[in-house]
Amino acid sequence: MKIDEHVPLSSHTTVGTGGPALAFARPASLAELEQALAWAAERGLAVATIGLGSNLLAADEGVAALVLRLDGELAAAEARDGLLLAGGGAPNAVCLHRARAAGLGGFEFACAIPGTAGGGVWMNAGAYGSDWSEIVARAFVVTAEGSGWLTPQELGLSYRHSELRHGQVVALVEYRLAARPEREIKAIVADLQAQRKATQPTNKRTFGSVFKNPDHELGAGAMLEACGLKGHRIGGALISPRHANFIENAGGATTADCLALIEEARRCAGERFGVDLRHEVELLGPIVLTG
Ligand SMILES: Cc1cc2nc3c(=O)[nH]c(=O)nc-3n(C[C@H](O)[C@H](O)[C@H](O)COP(=O)(O)OP(=O)(O)OC[C@H]3O[C@@H](n4cnc5c(N)ncnc54)[C@H](O)[C@@H]3O)c2cc1C
Q1: Ligand 1 contact via 21 beta carbon (within 6 Å)
Q2: Between the CA of residue 179 and those of 92, 102, 104, 182, what are the distances in Å?
Q3: Residue 147 annotated to the active site
Q4: Catalytic choice (133, 162, 209, 240)
């Protein structure tokens, strides 16, 4: 397995920002993953695993770590005995396709979540009232010190959160789904995708929701819209005119532009609603945000 140096993370995030990773590798099997972790441990280098970078802001100045993106058999998925077994790097679109072909339902809610199985576990991603904690039977987590299967309870899954820490790699995910005819799955997915298209920016470079929804009658997007922030721009980063809880790369955006916009949005929501919005987007590298 090749380990590259100074790989720009802007090519590995959906928003298209981020500086270089000191080292970058794409392990394609459990054996290669173990080799990569041992390589980093020998050098005292931190390890961070990314999926499709769809909820990620990486520091413009770069990330002093070995960044892993799972590949090969660690990015594949197959249905077996009523279960769906996915590599941590398997895109949700591939998992949905395999589940549908096997007549397994329950994964439809993830049809518009453009991430991977591992990213879904880390974030406990969710939509339309369902989330990963409801479909994950167990996940195989690998570290430099050893590996093992963890249950959703052991992963500490709660609203858009897990207890996983960098250095713990979600290498495999076993989903427990339910028998459902393929045509029903298709109809559910078509309906959810139409809902998504009607309310969110679908053809822009974004990193998904900026903030978690607070415990308040208004969601984060409605609050920021009420603050008049739709269309507000700093550098190349723009609060989506479509949905205020999204930031778009309107051209040449940097991570610093996105962070400045996040701080500004947080300040406005705090002043107007007395609410301390917490960011949902994950941060990689030397980045400090107040919320
Ligand atoms: C247009 C759009 C719509 C979205 N809609 C939704 C939505 O409806 N609901 C929702 O919850 N999210 C949504 N998101 C956000 C995002 O898609 C999810 O959070 C997704 O689960 C992130 O997966 P990823 O593979 O891209 O992870 P990344 O963004 O690459 O990483 C996210 C975090 O997970 C960690 N990670 C990733 N893979 C692994 C692994 N294998 N092992 C260990 N750690 C890992 C990373 O280190 C990072 O901390 C949306 C994003 C976009 C761009």
Answers
A1: no
A2: 19, 9, 5, 9
A3: no
A4: 209
Q: Name beta bridge partners: 80.
A: 83
Q: Is the CB of 18 under 6 A from ligand 1?
A: no
- Å from CA of 232 to ligand 1 middle: 25
Q: Looking up tokens 């090519």, which residue turns up?
A: 11
Q: 113 CB less than 6 Å from ligand 1? A: yes
Write the residue with the smallest CA distance to atom 9 of ligand 1.
Answer: 126
Q: Compute, in angstroms, the gap from residue 120 CA to the centroid of ligand 1.
A: 6
Calculate how far, in angstroms, residue 280's C-alpha sits from the geometric centre of ligand 1.
Answer: 10
CA–CA distance, 121 with 138 (Å, rounded to integer): 10
Which positions ≥6 away from 125 have C-beta within 8 Å? 55, 110, 113, 115, 119, 131, 132, 160
Q: Along the 291 residues of the chain, how does pLDDT read in single tens digits?
A: 899 999 999 999 999 999 999 999 999 999 999 999 999 999 999 999 999 999 999 999 999 999 999 999 999 999 988 899 999 999 999 999 999 999 999 999 999 999 999 999 999 999 999 999 999 999 999 999 999 999 999 999 999 999 999 999 999 999 999 999 999 999 999 999 999 998 888 889 999 999 999 999 999 999 999 999 999 999 999 999 999 999 999 999 999 999 999 999 999 999 999 999 999 999 999 987 776
* Residue 209 a catalytic site member: yes
Q: Which of 282, 272, 10, 54 shows the shortest CA–CA distance to 165?
A: 282
Name the active-site residue from 69, 100, 138, 160: 160
pTM tops 0.90, yes or no:
yes
